[in-house]
Amino acid sequence: MAVSVPEYTCHTLPGTKPILNVTDLKSPLKLSKSLLRDPDALMMFAASRVEAALQCERINTTRPDLPSLEAFIKLMTIRTKLSLPTIMVSLIYVERLNKSLPPSARGDFETPYKIFLAAVLSASKFLNDRPIENCKMASLCGGYFTLYEINEMERCFLSLINYQLFVDSEDVRNFLNENRNLLQAGLYPEGW
């Protein structure tokens, strides 16, 4: 299975510093080669970060048709043709969500799926000139979630992270350094 990583051009306003450049993700940490060499490890890492964001029900009583979270993330990554920068920014948003929630917060079984979709939609809209649209996401979900549910999850997610969507290369470096052990174990078997 190959994960497509299209190139993106980031446009900056005169007098401002670049927000996020694809080369910031690739060169310093050699992310693209290592992550794309083992996309399954990337999907496992993404699933673990999303699951860690919030304690949720472990038994699926409401949606027996849902695949495992890792399989769902893999399916949606392929269907939406997510780029590596979009995945990384999505995971940074998930981390922001985790930090904004009170320790007593709990979720339903499908909550991690919704968190992932809302984070991907938000990251896509932040990074891309032609982002994934909510109606397109609903059709790509294969009936797991309706357009109404996707709109609602995105609205709730943005509210919970206080609309803090700005991500720069320093945010990416900090995220990677904080998760270095997990990344080395799953994505960098030969070390970095």
UniProtKB/TrEMBL annotation:
<dbReference type="InterPro" id="IPR006671">
    <property type="entry name" value="Cyclin_N"/>
</dbReference>
<dbReference type="InterPro" id="IPR036915">
    <property type="entry name" value="Cyclin-like_sf"/>
</dbReference>
<feature type="domain" description="Cyclin N-terminal">
    <location>
        <begin position="70"/>
        <end position="165"/>
    </location>
</feature>
<dbReference type="InterPro" id="IPR013922">
    <property type="entry name" value="Cyclin_PHO80-like"/>
</dbReference>
<protein>
    <recommendedName>
        <fullName>Cyclin N-terminal domain-containing protein</fullName>
    </recommendedName>
</protein>
<dbReference type="Pfam" id="PF00134">
    <property type="entry name" value="Cyclin_N"/>
</dbReference>
